[in-house]
Amino acid sequence: MSTDTQSSHTGSQSSSAASSKRVAVIGAGIIGTMAAWQLAKRGHDVTVFDQWNTPNDRGASAGESRIFRTIYKEGPEYVEFLRKSGQMWLELESEQDTRVLEWCGGLTIGHPDHPDVAAVADRAREQDLEHRVLDAAAMRKEFPQYGVDDDEVGVFDPGAGVFRPELAVLAARDEGIRHGAQYRTYTRVLNIRPLAGTVAVDTAEGASLFDSVVVATGPWAEELSGFDASLIRPTQLVAGWYPVRDLDMHQPTNMPIAIRRHPEGGYSCFPCLDGASVKILPHHLRWPHLSSVDELPRFIEPDSIRSAEAAVARLMPHLDPTAIRVSTWTEGFTPDGAPIVGTSPVDDRIVLAVGMSGQGFKFSPMVGSVVADLVATGTSPDALAIMDPSRFSTGAAT
């Protein structure tokens, strides 16, 4: 690995040689690759470490599809963050001449008094975001893919879409490499040691020295972030794929993503991307916490699949309610459900971007931008207070 300072890159935000830093990014999922892209684009000498290859099927960037939403019930502070992220996704696609995000629109479906449905409708009105509220009759006419009861509505978000996450990681990785980032895959980081004037990153191959280190280790966060498993809990997610009876109806051009809230089942639903089936990620079933990511089970208990199949049979009228494929992966969740993005309480040369809590993929470009700001100056005008690591400072390692 070269640790020579690079004087410039081709990005429009390139730094001078005097302000360029040697930066290690640990973790090469979507957060790490986005951070590497933004750092390298600004002229930093970036080395990315991952214990596996990139992308891979073990961490939080697996699973064939992810959701982008503009109307965000989680809080109004996310709206501008998401708007800027959408622009950056378009930039990445343009630079890499690829397509990783299908703008198919999105629905939140359920009784209008359900807290999630009401929150989405309220957020759209409060923030003056484009949307439509469809009653059951309109839903059945416009979006027959989704079965609805007579007293249910759908809140339609035209600024929503579906990602192909593995391709998105590849695009971010390759754009970072185009700007000079180096990748060291199959290289597990064992320790981070803040020293006088530098930060050491230890691997089995030895130590490398950097000016700053970015921790973007997803569900493995407790190992290097300074926060233990009680604050960033590795959690198992399980999705099933269900055969379509009408392929054209379920293509992204005709089917929006959906978040479903119903007494008989809650889930996220994704249009057909594999030419044969629709992915369902149940929310009404328990997402079990793991003591470590290494304990992720690859075989799922039948009762879990049967419960998801029953919800599909009831609420997805044009699918065969038989899970022909089941996949499981992990994500790191914080107690309040908000990510942790900011300088570490342990040492301000260490920047944390962990605990995405199932939210991070959609706004990962802006997380990468904030990380790059923090590495350069220790602050960022785009940082969100809700993500500040200091809210959990009592759990930080000392």
Can you walk through the features of this model?
By secondary structure, the protein is an alpha+beta fold. It is 23% helix and 26% strand. It is built from 7 helices and 20 strands. The chain has helices at residues 30-41, 78-96, 115-126, 136-142, 165-178, 302-315, 364-377, and strands at 22-26, 45-49, 66-68, 101-102, 106-110, 132-134, 153-157, 161-163, 182-184, 189-195, 198-203, 206-210, 212-215, 233-243, 257-262, 265-270, 277-282, 325-333, 340-343, 350-354. The strands form 4 sheets. Strands 6-7-5-15-16-17-14-18 form an 8-stranded mixed β-sheet. Strands 9-2-1-13-20-19 form a 6-stranded mixed β-sheet, covered by helices on one side. A hairpin with a 2-residue loop joins strand 11 and strand 12. Helix 1 (30-41) packs parallel to helix 5, helix 1 packs across helix 7 (364-377) and helix 2 (78-96) crosses helix 5. The longest helix is centred in the first third of the chain and has 19 residues, at 78-96. The chain is globular and about 65 Å long. The two termini are 30 Å apart.
